[in-house]
């Protein structure tokens, strides 16, 4: 009997010690905080970039990853920058901080703020979401004719609402139809009665609200400074007659402009052959052109431009085929010459004329930075170099000129 009582007491003692020990384990983590609980309405102290937690940002960018610091920030139900809501799956929220990206979507209303809503309330904090610059670099075809669809080329065009629904385009003050808009191009329909040296004006409510009221104007069908005569003499001039045509030969494209002749190489060309579209064309400086003085004073503000036509069924396929231009013996080094199929993708203009631009810095100043244009006896050369095996070819070129660069960059006000 004594043994049974002793065994019973021993069991009670062991169980007691076990539960005491278990209680010690449970109470060890009583002060642990997983930062998932908020105890009141949210508040924001500052906003930092994901790369520098010490930041206190006042301006952020589209797509930028941020950390929002404050209190009671867990249990988020929505976050908006301006009026654009963040995908809830992209939000990582704790009670003291939130990791979140700025949406890449375009706001309809610019509030310059972020609004965080949790299960306990809402807080709005001032932060400017900077728009990227509006950049315009030119046209797909600077000499589009009535009925042509021409692209304005650049960056962030859709972001600035140059769309059929919200954008406005005028040529010489007359409305123009916007056909479509993406981030990198805005397409418009060239109206009837278009003239050379016109002005295209672009606007939208967003452009005005973000960039200010200064008009965005581009020269369209800018004749530039002409130094080659594309009239009747083009067909007989020693420097151009070899490949010259007026658009009436078999397979010729329609001229870019009525009465403007062009050069064309067609058929299967020889291996590594050079084709002289313009062979040592001599000319005096156009002293009577009012823009000549500006060309002399500011050569780096100018490009050499021309229009090119490559048939869709006969694209340029040789990856070493190139265009070579020389002005008074000055040209870019080989790596800066235009190689249409350098990427390995055959090049075509899809049976229409397209504008090509080459930076004037390669031609209008020499290696010492001295202006190369002279008052008399200037010489210009334009070559198409096959640069590979003999292949079927059909390339036309016309309207070579000096023209002022189109390089519009507008920043948020």
Distance between the termini: 97 Å
Q: Figure out the total of helices.
A: 3
Strand content: 35-45%
Mean pLDDT: 92
Biggest sheet overview? 6 strands, antiparallel
Structural class estimated from helices and strands: mainly beta
Structure report:
With 413 residues, the protein is mainly beta. Helix content is 9%, strand content 38%. Strands 19, 20, 21, 23, 25 and 27 form a six-stranded antiparallel β-sheet that branches. A five-stranded antiparallel β-sheet has the order 15-16-12-11-28, with no helix packed on it. Strands 1-3-7-6 form a four-stranded antiparallel β-sheet, with no helix packed on it. Strand 15 and strand 16 form a beta hairpin. The radius of gyration is 34 Å and the shape is elongated.
Summary tags:
mainly beta, 6-stranded antiparallel sheet, 28 strands, disordered N terminus
């Amino acid at each position: 009997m004594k043994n049974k009582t002793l065994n019973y007491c021993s069991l009670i003692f062991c169980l007691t010690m076990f539960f005491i020990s278990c209680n010690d384990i449970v109470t060890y983590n009583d002060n642990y905080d997983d930062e998932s609980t908020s105890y009141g309405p949210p508040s924001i102290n500052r906003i930092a970039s994901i790369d520098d937690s010490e930041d206190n940002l006042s301006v952020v960018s589209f797509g930028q990853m941020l950390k929002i610091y404050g209190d009671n920030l867990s249990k988020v139900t929505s976050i908006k920058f301006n009026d654009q809501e963040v995908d809830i799956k992209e939000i990582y929220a704790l009670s003291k901080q939130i990791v979140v990206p700025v949406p890449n979507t375009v706001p309809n209303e610019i509030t310059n703020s972020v609004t965080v809503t949790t299960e306990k309330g809402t807080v709005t904090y001032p932060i400017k979401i900077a728009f990227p610059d509006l950049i315009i670099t030119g046209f797909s075809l600077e000499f589009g004719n009535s009925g042509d669809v021409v692209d304005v080329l650049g960056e962030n065009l859709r972001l600035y609402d140059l769309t059929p629904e919200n954008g406005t385009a005028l040529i010489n003050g007359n409305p123009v139809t916007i056909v479509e808009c993406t981030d990198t191009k805005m397409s418009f329909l060239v109206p009837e009665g278009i003239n050379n040296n016109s002005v295209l004006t672009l606007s939208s409510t967003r452009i005005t609200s973000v960039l200010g009221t200064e008009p965005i104007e581009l020269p369209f069908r800018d004749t530039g400074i002409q130094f080659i005569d594309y009239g009747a003499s083009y067909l007989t001039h020693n420097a151009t007659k070899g490949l010259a045509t007026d658009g009436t030969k078999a397979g010729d494209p329609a001229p870019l402009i009525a009465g403007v002749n062009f050069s064309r190489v067609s058929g299967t060309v020889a291996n590594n052959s050079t084709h002289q579209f313009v062979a040592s064309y001599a000319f005096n400086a156009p002293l009577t052109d009012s823009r000549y003085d500006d060309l002399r004073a500011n050569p780096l503000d100018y490009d050499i431009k021309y229009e090119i036509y490559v048939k869709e069924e006969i694209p340029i396929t040789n990856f070493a085929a190139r265009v070579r231009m020389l002005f008074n013996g000055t040209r870019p080094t080989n790596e800066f010459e235009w190689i249409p199929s350098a990427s390995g993708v055959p090049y075509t203009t899809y049976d229409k004329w397209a504008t090509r631009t080459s930076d004037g810095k390669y031609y209008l100043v020499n290696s010492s930075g001295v202006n190369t244009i002279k008052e008399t006896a200037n010489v210009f050369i334009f070559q198409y170099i096959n640069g590979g095996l003999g292949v079927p070819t059909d390339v036309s070129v016309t309207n070579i000129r000096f023209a002022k660069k189109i390089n519009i960059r507008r920043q948020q006000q």
